[in-house]
Amino acid sequence: APGQTFGFVRWASNDYGTVLSRFDVLLAVGRGEPVTRFPHVTPGADVLLSISGWRKVQRVFGLIDAIEALGIDPCDVAPDHWRHIHNRLIAAEAPRPYSPERHSAWLARKALQS
Description:
Elements: E1 5-14, E2 17-28, E3 36-38, E4 41-52, H1 54-69, H2 79-90, H3 100-113
Antiparallel strand pairs: 1-2, 2-4, 3-4
């Protein structure tokens, strides 16, 4: 459904081990909105985070675990935070942790926009 955030894992291996490790956080968009095409995602989605390489993917999984430890569903996290994580990891910097305060601010902003 439009506005829904979800994770998309792509992984492949051969006889020698992992050959592809990729994780994307995507935002479902409405009809007529610009999209990036992904296999098995119709019609496509807005990309919030796109990471490849097992070490980076593993790091994102750790960040997701930390969000879940706060009692927050990662699908409800502010889209801006996923973009922040993407940008920081691409720059080889540590992303800021997500907090209950930031989440409350996101929920308030989302309520005002609807």
